[in-house]
Design brief:
This protein has 220 residues and is an alpha/beta fold. The protein is 32% helix and 25% strand.
């Protein structure tokens, strides 16, 4: 369940763009480590460039967390898994997005360290959300698998994704401010200093019509 103002699109890895500007309309890209490893090298370079240009990517841990240690993910997000732990609730999510996550059965939470990353949310000293800035963009790592229960059945999913969306990079484009007087001065500077001499203009036109009349007589 994504925010209402976003249109979710499920794209197979082989169809992702091979140029960074192919992500122009993308507000948030959710991808797991396994999908990342299936990208062609050109696609992977485009993805990295998009993030550096201000893109926003979210990935997460899960049962198959070995994919997080593979080369592609390490190039993008140098992550080290410290341990995994089973919990039945995440009360910290209530302060984060208004509703805590509670499960009737234990679920897996990965405790990870990411170089130069900031802890956005933690539970019992376990980082639940880590954020790393790359260029102008961001990558968020979730220690909980959002694709499977209990998260996939959690009633607080929409408020959670709304909160994540509010953390997306804000890029300020500084416009060029020009004084209107300076613009007028620049235009006047490139204009001719005066109008053509009237006498010269009439002489030129008179000569032109004389030559034209002579030419027409010869043709006739």
């Amino acid at each position: 369940v994504l925010p209402q103002d976003l249109f979710p699109v499920n794209v197979r890895p082989e169809f992702l763009p091979e140029t960074w500007y192919g992500y122009e309309s993308v507000k948030l890209l959710i991808i797991n480590a396994g999908m990342l490893n299936r990208l062609r090298e050109q696609q992977f370079r485009a993805l990295v460039q998009w993030i550096k240009q201000g893109g926003y990517l979210v990935t997460a841990g899960g049962i198959n967390y070995g994919a997080l240690l593979e080369q592609r993910m390490q190039r993008l997000l140098p992550i080290a898994i410290v341990r995994h732990q089973q919990l039945v609730e995440l009360p910290s999510l209530e302060d984060f997005c208004g509703q805590k996550l509670v499960s009737s059965e234990p679920f897996l939470v990965l405790q990870a360290n990411i170089q130069d990353a900031e802890v956005v949310l933690q539970e019992q000293a376990i980082p639940i959300i880590l954020q790393k800035t790359i260029g102008l963009g961001k990558i968020l790592f979730l220690a909980v698998d959002f694709q499977n229960p209990p998260f996939s059945r959690w009633n607080g999913r929409q408020s959670f994704w709304n909160k994540l969306l509010s953390l997306q990079p804000v890029i300020e484009y500084t416009g060029i401010e020009l004084d209107s007087q300076k613009i007028r001065d620049a235009l006047l500077l490139n204009m001719p200093g005066g109008f053509p001499n009237v006498k010269v203009t009439f002489l030129f036109l008179g000569g032109y019509f004389v030559l034209l009349r002579v030419f027409l007589k010869k043709v006739a």
